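PROTOCOL LOG
Step 1. Enter all chains and additional molecules of the complex.
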Amino acid sequence: MNLVIATTVELAAVTTVLLLVLATPLAWWLARSRRWWSEIIGAISALPLVLPPTVIGFYVLVALGPASPLMALLHPFGIHTLAFSFSGLVIGSLFYSLPFAVQPLRTAFEAIGDRPLDLAATMGAGPMDRFFSIGLPMARRGFLSAAILVFAHTVGEFGVVLMIGGSIPGKTEVLSIRIYQLVEALQYGEAHRIAAGLVVFAFLTLLALLLVERRIRGVQP
Amino acid sequence: MPYTIVVSILLGATSPAFAADAIVAVAANFTEPAKEIAVAFNKATGHTATLSFGASGAFYAQMGHGAPFEVFLSADAERPEMAERDRLAVPGSRFTYAIGRLVLYSATPGFVDDAGAVLKAGTFDHLSIADPTAAPYGMAAMQVMQALGVYPALAPKIVKGSSITQAYQFVATGAAALGFLAQSQVFNIQGGSRWLVPKRLHKPINQQAVLLKTGADNPAALAFVKFLKGPRSIAIIHRYGYETR
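Step 2. Run joint prediction.
Step 3. Record the structure below.
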């Protein structure tokens, strides 16, 4: 049981850190781009919101399998398949939770507006400088929201893990899968206990998110 | 109404006065034969059968909470027995409609030999099975590995699908090199390589059906259960690699 919790938390934590790093430049570009076609990229990055998780999971399974051209690129490094591995779960989770990082970050970056950035530019700040000294600090609320949402969403992930995990203890067996298996095996008592734990966790997470947002609103009216 | 009488005569004696519909919960491994049986059932009786496919365990959980299923075709004997004990089923209606056969299958030709020696060689990364706590085919797979004495060596390579359908997906996509599947799933697939696991290596996979109380008064549900025991159904069941009593 502890192993399952550890795997779940580790997956959510790794996904959150990686996704914040990967989604930030994308969200920044989406927020600042003035070209209409940037919304094509915006729409693609939001697709996981609409697609059934098992569909995402199935394609990730195919992409990470030994027959995939993607994996052929990794053959020189001795990697033939990432399906049923922790790394594979992380890759699936990155896709699955991408919109939950991009949307809050983009909103936060857009809220900064052009003025502070234009002012900084007239004072000689380059694009990187503007991003690090204005973009990042002013969007910290967005980062916090994104981190909490991604972490919580990954803990609740089911369909993707079901498709690519294979339920290997210590590697790919997470809480949501455990609950499903317990219900299938008619062990309702244990399933209720884990589900109750997840509900408490989800409630506390969302409460924290709302309190953080309220506090930041209070500081910057 | 003379017109109604004419129509009844035209439809012939086998058609009932009222064509009804039966809602049937079908274990995932029995998907294909069940579809064929439903078509034959409709032709023979005029009734229709609406089929839902899924894991037996999930169906059982839903049945206890008001799901509208009228007939339950489980992948095992345990859950129909429990349905009887929990008074969800009509007493005495339980019977074995098919006996499943386990097969070790790989999408790669020549990979699985006809004696299962590949299990001892262990020249693969992942072996796919259905979750043994929920799926009888997964349980049978565990028994086979234990009987052959290869389980301790293979345990780290086992990946579990939530149902036998998912165990098949893992193998079909090549994500797992081979897997223990239901013979019915790969019976009509050419190519690949397979070993029909001898029956003595695992307990029999008796797939039982039961009439649920929700369907006790539905002529279509009663007729479906009767049709499932009949020669036309049995012929279809055999054609998909199952055995019968």
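Step 4. Note key features.
The interface with chain B takes residues 58, 61-62, 64-67, 80-81, 83-84, 162-168, 177, 180-181, 183-186 of chain A (CB under 8 Å).
The domain at 2-219 of chain A is CATH 1.10.3720.10 (MetI-like fold).
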